[in-house]
Design goal:
NAD-dependent epimerase; NAD; 12 helices; 14 strands; Rossmann fold; globular; Epimerase_deHydtase; alpha/beta; eight-stranded mixed sheet
Amino acid sequence: MSKTILVTGAAGFIGFHVSKALLEKGHKVIGIDNINDYYDVNLKLARLEALGIDKSEAIQELNSTSSSTYGDRMIFVKMNLEDRIALPKLFETHTIDLVCNLAAQAGVRYSLENPEAYADSNLTGFLNILECCRNYKVQKLVYASSSSVYGNSDAVPFEETANVDHPISLYAATKKANELMAHAYSHLYGFESIGLRFFTVYGPWGRPDMAMFLFTEAILNEQPVKVFNNGDLSRDFTYIDDIVSGVVKTLLDTSTNASPYKLYNIGNSQPVQLLEYIEAIEEALGKKAIKEMMPMQPGDVKQTYANVNLLKNDFNYQPDTEVAEGIAAFVKWYRGFYKKE
């Protein structure tokens, strides 16, 4: 049965891909995004255009309904998540069955420069979403948390039962707060909430502030690649298609776990050393990197490694994209989108 699903952050990396997947399954998607300038606005508008949303309409403060690609099954509204007038009005206008909250002020390092943005979007905005889910009887809320909540834990792989009371960035602290807020609302008001702790997502249409994008750009432009902590880092790099598969399953499928409140790691469960990752990018580009060894950055963690057994057991989640395959797909997209030979 077709559902009406609100996807916040629809012009973002994961939000774009999730919206596309839901539309292709025949569902109606109401996408919202404030299209801020944290990174290149043109990339965000290009994602919306790929969803059938006219770019000239998307930048206006009004509803923009696509008449191409997906017909009236895709609606986009430019909006701040924390807008306490506009968001409830959206729920009044449309009967929304499910909410997928992917909007947030992203980036660990940027939280050191502009902490207010994280309070506005990640805390006030998330509370606004919870209030709307409560007041308009939404069936289920799936929301983005982050692997950053684990901080500098040495206990790997990371498990959902681990203590995550020691964040080392404001971004991580806001994601931990989201989990606590969702727990309270699920307990008090009975709607189902699922938090997904994303592990280093990469792939086509990715964010320009992420390692995959930065490394590719630097290598092609013969600029130094900044290798933090002298390369002594590892990340559970997770390809976007595997992330989308997990998000869509948690939204649309019924879990074998009856609890109304759930938290899951969503990753590849195969961490890769940073220098190996750079080598794979070099291979895909056919070009060597100029490496600039750098110290550890404030707020960064040394390693991430997801235990995804809970998500496998409850929703049959099966990540299956090897890093070399995912990097090749990103490089192909990057060369095409930016017309780089």
